[in-house]
Amino acid sequence: MEFRKFSAGCFILTCCHMQASAQELKTISLKNEQQSYALKTYFISQVKDDRPDTTNIGSIKTGLVSKKTQKLQLEYGARQSLTQFIRLHVQQDTSSIPIELHITDLSVFETGTAGLKSSNELNIALAFYEDNAKLTEYKAGGTTESTGDASKPIEELIRGSLENILKQFDDWWSLNKVFYQAQKTKPAIMVDAVIDENTYDSVNISYSPARPLTIDDFQGRPDEHGNAAAVTSSMLSVKYSTIRTMSNLSIVDVSVLANFSKKQSWFRSDSRRPDILAHEQRHFDLTAAIACELVDTITHFTFTLDHYTDELYRLQRLKQLELEQLQDQYDLESKQGNAASVAEKWNRIIRERLNRSNCYKH
Q1: In CATH, what number is assigned to the domain containing residue 133?
Q2: Which residue segment(s) compose the domain that 43 sits in?
Q3: At 37, is the secondary structure helix, strand, or coil?
Q4: What b-and-e string marks burial along 112-146, b requiring 16 or more CB atoms within 10 Å of the CB?
Q5: Which residue, 182, 204, 223, sits at the end of a domain?
Q6: pLDDT tens-digit series, residues 298-309
Q7: Backbone phi, psi, residue 34, to 5°
Q8: Do the strands 230-231 and 204-206 form a parallel or antiparallel pair, or are they unpaired?
Q9: d(Cα 319, Cα 271) in Å, to the nearest integer?
Q10: Same structural domain for residues 155 and 216?
């Protein structure tokens, strides 16, 4: 019996102590005003309080002359008070991007007294999270001076700081959300290929229907003792540049050139005739036709982000080998057949292959 009485007495004393502590806690409520502004790029899905001690937000002096301090707390606690304030005071579109608001600091402390006036400082820090990842954090606050009860200016300072932080993040998120959302987007690649017919320098000429070859373009040293009357050195060249967009898409711009090398192409001195120039022009025309086909092949090929450079090289190499075989076939038929009929046949072949892609618009 004595043991039970002793236990009951301890329980009663503990309850009385808790009631006394509760009486020393002063609460302030955030003023609920009419909705004054709208969030444009996000909405607050929930508020979390990350502070180690969530039982109060600091302390203030009470009375005009009293030096007694009271613990200060937002009504219903900081998390619930901010949640309610945002729900009632801020217009939100719940179809926009959900953002968590984390309270990392919310503290009030006295900085000094002068006569009947007291000064209090507020520190508030709010962090913004998306999908459990911290995006950024804002800090605000200020100092209040008051005579008597400081809770009113402190409430105004908390409310104003909260509004400013919400607006600052709205502006920041409008500029940065694409970047952060792209990090969650699977990287992709888009390859666009075109014919480049604008290269003309001391070394190379890129193919253009508006600019046929001339004998003077053949500037290489001729083989005066061989069987060939002239040689055309032409090949496929591929240039590309890559940019990555904010949406995590890599865009590869590819330029395909049918190149004629002036330094490696030549005429023998006794073969500088229009009919031979026409034959050499057909070699360059063939290169242009295969360049068009390479553009079409690249356009319809499914590239991978990690290996697109190797894939581009492989496609180019396959078409270059095909071009070399066609050039050999053209020369072989030209030697064995009637010059006029061979020219007519290959004119038709080249014209048809160029028309399939229609990459030269002249």
Answers
A1: 3.30.160
A2: 25-182
A3: strand
A4: eeeeeebebbbbbbbbbbbeeeebeebebbbebeb
A5: 182
A6: 999 999 999 999
A7: -65, 145
A8: unpaired
A9: 31
A10: no
